[in-house]
Amino acid sequence: MPPTGHRPAPEHTHPDEVPVLTALAALADPVRLTLVRELAGSDDWTRACGSFDVPVGKAALSHHFAVLRAAGLVEQRDQGPKRVNRLRRPEFDTRFPGLLDLVLRPDEVAAPA
């Protein structure tokens, strides 16, 4: 789909090009973890950037999505005035088998003191 509107199309990094520490750093932030978890529970291309309930403003949210794109976790495209998202689960799972399974597990047990 060709880009629309006044903003440039987002740049994406394929998970094959992502070092494990970059992926772990992207997933270590609570806001980004929330975004990934919500995307994991949503159909591809159904969540616009503004539809996430996170405690940050637009600029910070854009930064968080940029970090997730650079880590190969998220793909974005413009649909009219909205930027929609999908979790790149199949590609990411091929690169880092089991990592998203661990990250997406509910936080059931607190770490031992």
Describe the model:
By secondary structure, the chain is an alpha+beta fold. Strands 1-3-2 form a three-stranded antiparallel β-sheet. Helix 1 runs antiparallel to helix 3 and helix 2 crosses helix 3.
CATH fold topology: Arc Repressor Mutant, subunit A
Helix amount, in percent? Answer: 40-55%
Low-confidence stretches: none
N-to-C SSE string, H for helix and E for strand: HHEHEEHH
Question: What gross morphology would you assign?
Answer: globular
Content-based structural category: alpha+beta
What's the structural domain tally?
1
The total count of helices amounts to 5
Mean pLDDT, rounded to whole units?
91
Percent range for β-strand residues: 5-15%
Count of extended strands: 3
Enumerate the strands of the largest sheet in spatial order, edge to edge or round the barrel. 1-3-2
CATH architecture: Orthogonal Bundle
In CATH's first tier, which class applies?
Mainly Alpha
Fourth-level CATH superfamily: Winged helix-like DNA-binding domain superfamily/Winged helix DNA-binding domain
N/C terminus separation: 51 Å
Rg over CA atoms: 14 Å
Describe the structure using short key phrases.
113 residues; alpha+beta; three-stranded antiparallel sheet; 5 helices
In brief:
The protein has five helices and three strands.
SSE layout and pairings?
Layout: H1 20-28, H2 30-40, E1 47-48, H3 58-70, E2 74-79, E3 82-87, H4 89-95, H5 99-104
Antiparallel strand pairs: 1-3, 2-3
